[in-house]
Design goal:
Layout: E1 2-4, E2 10-17, E3 20-27, H1 39-51, E4 53-54, E5 61-73, E6 76-88, E7 93-94, H2 104-109, E8 110-116, H3 118-122, E9 127-129, H4 138-141, E10 148-154
Parallel strand pairs: 1-6, 3-9, 5-10
Antiparallel strand pairs: 2-3, 2-8, 4-7, 5-6
Length: about 160
Amino acid sequence: MLLLDDDGRLLLVRGHDPHDPERSFWFTPGGGLEGDEDYAHAAVRELVEETGYLLEVDELVGPVWLRTAVFDFASRPYVQFEQFFVGRLADAERRPRADAAFTADEHEALDEFAWLTQEQVANEPREVFPEVLRDSWDVFANWDGVTRDLGVNAE
């Protein structure tokens, strides 16, 4: 989920791999599908679970990007098929964050949530996922209606 505030900053999560604490990285809130939910409903659920910000599905824009991420986390391999939607903080209702929704690895691995500018992300020395967040945000902040496939990203 790409959640933008009124100043054009993006909400990102900083974490580290519990099995490699030297590796620190930024990523967008999100996660996997549950049951028969679609990607938009999963994005809404994951956003409120992880951040406490509740949006309605009809308040989402996109998907603006598709991506297949191949990565290791906590010494386990993952392949994740992702769809990125845009939401606006101005549309969100604030609810308590659902700490219980985090796995034990997530509790250990999540370090902070922060609102960052495009310039801060572009100049960030840590890894950023997806990497395309280092480029212009105009492609999703002012989306033209075309869903872009970022392909397979091995991390």
